[in-house]
Amino acid sequence: MTTCDIIQVINISKNFGQTIALDQVSFTIKEGETLCIIGMSGSGKSTLLKMINQLLLPSKGQIIFDGKNIESFVPIELRRQIGYVLQQPALFPHWTIRKNIGLVPRLLNWPSEKIQKRIDELLQLMQLPSGHFADRYPSQLSGGQQQRVGIARALAARPKAMLYDEPFSSLDPMTRSDLRKEVLYLKKNLNITNVFVTHHIREAFSLGDKVLILHKGRKIQHGTPDEIRSQPANEFVTEFIKTGYEE
Ligand SMILES: Nc1ncnc2c1ncn2[C@@H]1O[C@H](COP(=O)(O)OP(=O)(O)OP(=O)(O)O)[C@@H](O)[C@H]1O
User: Fold this and answer.
1) Cβ 41 under 6 angstroms from ligand 1
2) What was the ipTM of the complex prediction?
3) What CATH homologous superfamily does 5-89+162-246 map to?
């Protein structure tokens, strides 16, 4: 471990009954790094992500976040420090966009003025002008706009890390490409560690400083996109990369 490792995943295994979803997986993520996790359906990507923010507990092993075992965090404290963006943003339908984005700061009892200021900042950052969007309801926004709100909500309390679980998979290719650029912009301009699950190899290689390849719950390779391209760990990785580029 070095001092700038913000997340350490140490020998994690997860079973659901007879199913081994993850099998002795270890890796570390440095502060400010973007890690993309890729693998085929059922390879354990979402299970791993959910364990980083304590939605699931490991069967074996441990996860250290910012120097502390994540099991020792009170859940709200972990939510403040780790934003979570899902495939469907799951906004509260009867709440305005403003109220949705302010969720975590309200739970943390921030003063109202500070919450409103932060919401306006985030709407601007996500290119959703406040005058147009703040008082609308989620159903009055497109899928891509809703996902922008989902990202704004996850960023609201200035987390140290963001987890993205296939956030663009239900969007059309153009919107997907716009949002990918937005995530690249956030990556360059906010000093946040990102863990991004995708099954699009191009997406993983364009967004990730590092890429982790999982297969049947096992870590197959962990390295920079260049390392993986130039020195694939085995035949599976070679084929997987080739298939991805043919998509
Ligand atoms: N709550 C659960 N109960 C039982 N089995 C589960 C549960 N969650 C996941 N699994 C199993 O664990 C394995 C890994 O699932 P996981 O959702 O992590 O894969 P994934 O790589 O994210 O897949 P996808 O790309 O399809 O979302 C699968 O075999 C899945 O069926």
Assistant:
1) yes
2) 0.97
3) P-loop containing nucleotide triphosphate hydrolases (3.40.50.300)
